[in-house]
Design brief:
This protein is of the alpha/beta class and about 270 residues long. The protein has a domain at about 5-100 and about 175-260: P-loop containing nucleotide triphosphate hydrolases (Rossmann fold, 3-Layer(aba) Sandwich). About 40% of the residues lie in helices and about 25% in strands. It has helices at about 5, 60-70, 90-95, 115-125, 130-140, 160-170, 190-205, 215-220, 240-245, 245-255, 260, and strands at about 20-30, 35-45, 50-55, 75-80, 85, 100, 175-180, 210, 225-230, 235-240. Helix 4 (about 115-125) runs parallel beside helix 6 (about 160-170). The protein is globular and about 50 Å long. The two termini are about 30 Å apart.
């Protein structure tokens, strides 16, 4: 099944804010030692919306994030931000252009404080020291991290560490934020808080969010539009109701998740 056949609702039909733009991957293919990780994958992330990306382990999700954020380059295909080709930009260049990401394993400066971690990201984006501090304090306040500001990043509870990763990404003033399994290991209360946080980031700051996670309840509760990858290919896409209703395809590619898809979180 092609991506165009998989859904009757295209991302272009979504009602977008006036300042809308897109981060778009078009026809992306990538192989490693002859093994194809991605095959002609296309995906769009509109500003002001949360786009979910799901699929089994080995589906190519992390490879796609690496390509979108400049840590890898595709063999074939292109990446465009607001209709400007950024395929060949490095990770640093894409960050300066407005594409930020989190990592599955933190990427924190563990000897620095929570506040200093966010300041470093703001400084790397070109802010002066005073502006970097103001930016960091504002972001910590938004993410309810101010009480942790003076503590070492190496001694944080897991949920706080995850939020700090998001805070560091926000300090680069992105237009698009790629979240790679940001909710792994969170308890139910932390998960709900995180869901509210990313909704606030997307809606209030007009940031396009790509949310990748294995927690189907989070994905279906938070996302405006969902892509399913399997075997490095687009196999299904649409709004949450469209994807949820295709239980046969979802179960075939994602294992025993049909019961989860049938129970949306309010």
């Amino acid at each position: 099944m092609t991506s165009s056949q998989a859904s009757s609702t295209s991302v272009e039909e979504l009602e977008l804010p006036l300042s809308a733009g897109f981060l778009r991957a078009e026809g992306i293919s990538r192989s490693f030692r002859g093994v194809k990780a991605l095959a002609e994958v296309t995906l769009e992330i509109p500003r002001g919306r949360i786009t979910g990306l799901i699929g089994p382990n080995g589906a190519g999700k992390s490879t796609l994030v690496n390509i979108l954020s400049g840590y890898e380059r595709p063999d074939i295909g292109s990446v465009a931000m607001n209709n400007v080709d950024i395929t060949r930009q490095t990770a640093h260049q894409k960050s300066r252009s407005g594409v930020a990401r989190t990592f599955q394993h933190g990427h924190l400066f563990r000897s620095l404080s929570v506040l200093e971690n966010v300041q470093v990201s703001a400084l790397a984006n070109g802010s002066g020291r005073r502006q970097a501090q103001r930016t960091a304090v504002g972001i910590l306040d938004r993410l309810d991290l101010l009480p942790w500001g003076g503590l070492s990043a190496g001694h944080l509870p897991h949920g706080v560490e995850r939020r700090l990763g998001v805070a560091r990404a926000l300090a680069t003033a992105p237009e698009y934020l790629l979240l790679d399994e940001p909710a792994a290991g969170l308890n139910d209360g932390e998960m709900e808080n995180f869901r509210n946080t990313i909704h606030s980031i997307s809606a209030d700051l007009n940031i396009g969010v790509l949310l990748i996670d294995h927690n189907m309840r989070l994905i279906f509760a938070a996302s405006d539009y969902i892509y399913v990858l399997a075997g490095g290919q687009n196999v299904l896409q649409g709004d949450p109701d469209v994807v949820r209703s295709d239980e046969k395809l979802a179960t075939s590619y994602l294992g025993t998740i049909a019961s989860t898809l049938a129970k949306p979180t309010s």
